[in-house]
Here is the input.
Amino acid sequence: MKVLIDEERIKRRVRELAEEIRNNYRGNRLIIIVVLKGSFVFGADLIRELGDMDIVVDFIRASTYGMGTEPEEEVKILLEPTIDIKGERVLIVDDILDTGYTLRRIKEYVLSKEPLSCEVCVLLDKPARRKVELKPDYVGFEIPNYFVFGYGIDWAEKYRNLPYIAHE
Here is the structure.
């Protein structure tokens, strides 16, 4: 196991992302939809850094991995947000953008609910694996094509508790 992004770099970048988001949504309510499970740590840290900003938080969960280890194009929404987002400003918060299948499906789902706007914030962007056209609005770190884990991201449901991002 090798550390790719240490705890201090993550903390610093999350603060910077929160400041960007606060500046862009100043004076407006923001609905934050955190993608489970991998984004729960990033989402919690980002939300705390937003301070007293007018936000509402909800969750979504999708599945792209069937029985294998390669993402499938067919993405299933397993848990839908419960908040009515029609006419709202929405920010989807996800852990990693690689092929783009999952985030594309989640964004399509959110847009079908007629929000005023819909942006995407990802902790990690892995453009080498992209299969669909999708550009996040906020990116923590661009990373090479490594299998990563830690800081909420699992490897066979383990290592979510690591305070850093690692790779094999």
Summary: The two ends are 5 Å apart (CA to CA).
